[in-house]
TrEMBL record:
Name this protein carries in UniProt: Peroxyureidoacrylate/ureidoacrylate amidohydrolase RutB
Gene3D superfamilies registered for this protein in UniProt: Isochorismatase-like
Residues covered by the Isochorismatase-like domain: 14-196
Pfam family, one: Isochorismatase
InterPro entries xref list: Isochorismatase-like_dom, Isochorismatase-like_hydrls, Isochorismatase-like_sf
Molecular-function annotations in GO: hydrolase activity
Keywords, ordered alphabetically: Hydrolase
Length: 212
């Protein structure tokens, strides 16, 4: 891939989407850790995400915090049947339940006035006002970080591209529970809809206005 022009990430038309950095997905002792997932890649991605969030705030780039919040009444028939059929059991959908500690942010949190979007499954655009929020702010470029690369980052990236946004994935600021799955997801997205970039290059681009 050719070196990207830093102007691509100009704060005037760029937003940072922080996806599902929640206790059930990333914190020791919560759902994914209890299920035996390898958590080291998550911790590394969270550290990079925190640096990216700080850089976005310094450059006045809108930061959008996205969380999945599930409820029994919003669990779709499809998701329940899917989990049952692959052997997870019907209660597998009961992650990040409304009102539980597992749904809380983990190591990140929106500041007063920052945007929050609540979703019910993978894609942050499905059933939410995310597109409207971005359009109202003149956003055309999205940088994605968070969890997990192969699921909610992937689902959001694909839909964003089809909605005519330019999509970039901060490769070191997102993670799957297996490094190869993470790389595979980035490779597939890179073929069709989203470009993987190092978070440092994005942070450098956002630092340019501060130096001017």
């Amino acid at each position: 891939m050719n070196k990207l022009d830093p102007a691509i990430f100009a704060p005037a038309h760029t937003a940072l989407l922080v996806i599902d950095i929640q206790k059930d997905f990333g914190a020791p002792g919560f759902a994914m850790a209890q299920a035996g997932m390898v958590m080291e890649p998550v911790e590394a991605a969270l550290a990079a995400s925190i640096r990216l969030i700080d850089a976005a705030r310094s450059a006045h780039v809108p930061v959008v915090f996205i969380r999945v919040i599930t409820r029994p009444e919003t669990d779709s028939r499809a998701v329940r049947r899917f989990f049952e059929r692959i052997g997870y059991g019907a209660d597998a959908a009961a992650i990040c339940r409304a009102g539980t500690e597992g749904a809380a942010y983990y190591r990140v949190a929106p500041e007063p006035g920052e945007i929050e979007v609540e979703k019910t499954l993978y894609n942050a655009f499905a059933g939410t006002r995310l597109e409207t929020i971005l359009r109202e702010r003149g956003i055309e470029t999205l940088v994605l970080c968070g969890l997990t690369t192969d699921c909610c980052v992937d689902g959001t990236a694909r839909d964003a591209f089809e909605r005519n946004f330019d999509v970039f994935i901060a490769r070191d600021a997102c993670a799957a529970f297996d490094p190869q799955t993470h790389e595979n997801a980035l490779a597939i997205l890179g073929t069709h809809s989203a470009i993987a970039v190092d978070s440092a290059s994005v942070r450098e681009a956002w630092a340019v206005p501060a130096k001017a």
